[in-house]
Predict the structure.
Amino acid sequence: MTIPLTWYLILSAALFAIGLFGVLARRNAIAILIGVELMLNAVNVNILAFWRYIRPDDPSGQVFAIIVLTVAAAEAAVGLALFISIYRTRRSINVDHLDALKG
Amino acid sequence: MNLSSLNWNSLLPELVIVATSLIVLITAVVGKVSRVDRIARGHALAVVTLIGLLIAAGLTIMQLSQPASDFMGMVQSDALSHYLNLVILLAAALAVLLAWDYLGRFTYSFSEFYSLLLLAVAGMMFLGKSTELITLFVSLEILSISLYILTGFNRHQLASAEASLKYFLLGAFASGFIVYGAALLYGDTGSTWFSDIAANASGGFLTLAGFALLLVGFAFKIAAVPFHMWTPDAYQGAPTPVTAFMSVGTKAAALVALFRVLQSAVSAPYETWAWALAILSLLTMTVGNVAALRQTSIKRLLAYSSIAQAGYMLIGLVAGTVLGLQAMLFYLFAYAFMNIGAFACASLLESDDWSELQDASMANARGLFSRQPLLATALAIFMFSLAGIPPLAGFFGKLYLFDAAIDAGWLWLALVAVINSVISAYYYMRVVVVMFMEAPDESTRVRLPIPDSAILAIVIAVLGALLLGILAGPSFASLGQAVVAWRF
Amino acid sequence: MIFDYAWLILLFPALGLLFNAFFGRRVGHKVAAIVANLAVALSFLMAVALAMGLSALPGDESSVEVLLWPWIHIAGFQVDMALLIDPLSSVMILVVTGIGLLIHIYSATYMKVDDEHQPMDERRYARFFVYMNLFILMMLTLVLANNYVMLYLGWEGVGLASYLLIGFWFYKPSAADAAKKAFLVNRVGDFGMALAIMWMFFLFGKEAGSLSFDAVFAALETASPAVVAALTGVTLLLLLAATGKSAQIPLFVWLPDAMEGPSPVSALIHAATMVTAGVYMLARSHPLLELAPATMTLIAWIGGLTALMAASIAIVQTDLKRILAYSTISQLGYMFLGVGVGAYVASVFHLYTHAFFKALLFLAAGSVMHALHGELNIDLMGGLRKKLPVTYAQFLIGALALAGFPLLSGYWSKDAILLGAFVTSYPLYAIGLFTALLTAFYSLRAVYRAFHGQPRDEHLYDHAHEQPRGMTWPLWALAFGAVFAGLLGLPAIFGKEFGFPVGNLIEGWLKPTFEGLSEPHVAFSTEMALFISSGFVALIGIYLAYARYVKQSGWTLSLQKALSPLQPALENKYWVDEIYFAVIVNPLRALARFFATGAEGVIDGVVNGVGAVTTAAGVGIARLQTGLLSWYALSLFLGVVLLLIYFVFA
């Protein structure tokens, strides 16, 4: 093992920041969702790096990563279903067009 | 490790809820029925759901006096979680009563609805019990995902879909931060158990950033300012029974879980997190109350009001004392009755036009007293209670919270809260004035049909708001006994 | 000990109201009425038992406190849910539950038809009894409270019940308006009560640690001069509260309109019990009043003037129930007069006799209303005595008791108050005596106009029918009380002089409550003179009414002509309503509209009044809530950054 833990942490922070930027900058709901997924998986990189470097004897880090993956999948499923439902009525999933509720 | 060595008893109420949820879900795929029968089946499912909730509540009450027990240290079943369970189950039962008639107006997917509601209940219950990061995260996601779908359950109505989309995207976004925080804490201590985290935390950047990010998740669920933006929109757009349920259940579970984290996992000094929470509390109640002043929709007004109410409840956490916790739990009960009651009344005032924004506008309440005196009186009672007017439950809740704050040395926060109560009285009273002093116009002269189930829910809520006020002394004392058992 | 079960007296009406609230509309008229009546009957039995338990106590003990549960308990200050059973509260609970029971029984039959004489549906029938039981519960809470906070709870509770019952026919605009008026006017009084309690909290809260009557009154003994001076302010606020609830000048205007409620409600709430709560509260607070002589004088004058004013208005009213309403205001004025001159026992005595004869009059009026299908205008009646002999007899007994016909109950109690006034101030006595003349006149005027002479509306007359049996016997019970209730309060001096075996029972009973205060006493000859003169005045009033309305003597007509310049003032009730409308109601209306329109500019304006900062904040926050998801996400992210910075650098 020659690659230090910090490198992984930086990689994951960078990925997280890219996802974050996606959420803040994009207007298409699917693009935002992709940003969120990127954030979650960046965290996964983080968790696995920590597991490998700090507690390789204890599987809970792996379990955590798998659970985050699962949750991300569930969120994607719900999200996409929601987008389809909105697309059917609005013919658009641009979040800027959805501002009936405000004030 | 084997399964039989686990203390299943401590999870019995949650298991009942999950099992009921599965039973309810299965009926969706069993047999084909006509549309008329589907309504009847919906009622049957509601009854099954209620029975499940009642059994869980019964089991929780039976466990009330039992000593705390744990499940490999991942969950903690103690007085705190028991009382939380009761609040959540109460909120869910009232929501089912509200949904009884309401749901049939826009959907036939009853089993999905009740099943998701029960899953959300299970998520909340687990959240309040969890003493380990993964459990915490999973329960948070279970309740969140169920609520995203419930919020958008009225698919054909754009407001509902929009509310759901906003809630979902922001919720998922917030999840990213929570999970990042959890990862940092894991990296700092090498463990996901609260007790280990408290023991091994380095107190460095990883610990502090980890806690800050975790706090974001809770603040989001509690709808604390500035993480509240989704709340008014989601609450207004969601079907009203769902709004009523999540405005109480989610906040309750998140507050209790946050308390648990603060007390058992945080190694940062009291002043650090207490000040952060105090600022959040200040911002939350002020923004909620000030924004509610201008609302013309009762539902949106109540949404802002529930933001403000969360601000009051945070005071209990800021105090961080037995008195504070006790006051917060008392307020949660009071809040469950008065807030759900208020949403129940609002749901009856909604217009029947399903294509537009589903809303209970203030104009619909005009002259309500001369049309339906009992409904108007009930809504007035909820408004008085939310405003904190004696002798109703809300008054005593605030009294105890402010007393706890002063007792813990947070006099300024108590004063801010009192000023906020005065501001809030203005918009609550506006609803009362409209109902009692205005003459009904032609369009609102008709008698509203009020289903029996909604009457039952409102009556329970009125009784709760009244009795918790009149019996404030004994109920507060009984909470006290339970809370003292909690290790400080 | 019976006192350990004192809470039952509150439990019964609570159970009754819960039962009818949940099942009332399903079980039918009969069961709903039986449950409601049973609840009050059991409460009454309990009240009797408590009074008997009280009388069995050894001589030096005269009151019992029963702790139900600790209510508010924070930072060294404690308010309990506790009952105070003493001579004064025992009289009150007996009146409330006893009269309440009779009126409940009457209502069971009376409320079977609605205001349009259609059969009443189960739902509303049950709802009526829910409200009535709620009223009994709240009234008992009010009179049994051992502290001001709990008293205030009952005070607001009876106000709520009264409001709901005035507006019982809520679809009638007049009823809804009357309810609204009662609500608004009472709010003014209640505000006074709330302020008084807060003030007392600041005066005594620290020292006494509680607002129970005992603690507050005990703290008075060591009170500094500054506190004693402040008591004038406190008692004035209490007086304001009492004028609201008991319909005195300046807050009396709601009571006549409150007659829009069903007749049993008028009898129970707006004559016999709730409106006397102000008198009760003042009598209960007598240790405070004793230290505020200025307030006492004011109470006496308010009472005297209200009595006179209301009696004079009653003379020209043509609506039977409104005559009775003004008469109630006038009689409450007497009670205030009694409190003001320190004749507390006389006041409570009058409260108790008044409950009988006024409830009787209202229920009899209700029977007339039933008989005539809702007609209450005495100008359209006449000659009813032949068609409604029973109602006539009952109404006559009530009217004579009210008129102070010698030896009936009203005679004794009114004289006791006049005696107190005589000792304190001759002008007040003169006002009281003159009011007695007017009282006798208007009571008998109502009798003669309604029941004597020729029918003025043949159609109404022909369709009149006597009251059903379920309504008759409660009335006879009340009539019995109207005749004989006064015997409990025969002047003590009679006992001494004539060697009666019994003295003034009610004074003996109440003595412990008003310990240390001497009821006014005068020489026997003076007292006899007062008795004879007021009896004489009552007879003159009755004769005047007879001469004017039965014999229709010429001189009475010329007397009326001579007095006619007064008529517009009386018929328009001294324009008080109009004045209030201009000075208070219209601004209030404007305020309500202000609150309710919700128009942006208006709200901005109001909020501006609160503070420009709030406005800016409100606008700002609304502008922040743009509805745009990207902005929401950004603000969330900003929150994250702030929290991170705070945690990492703090």
User: Anything to note?
Assistant: The longest helix of chain C spans residues 8-55. Chain C touches chain A through ten residues (CB under 8 Å). The beta strands of chain C are 64-74, 77-85. Chain C has a mean pLDDT of 84.
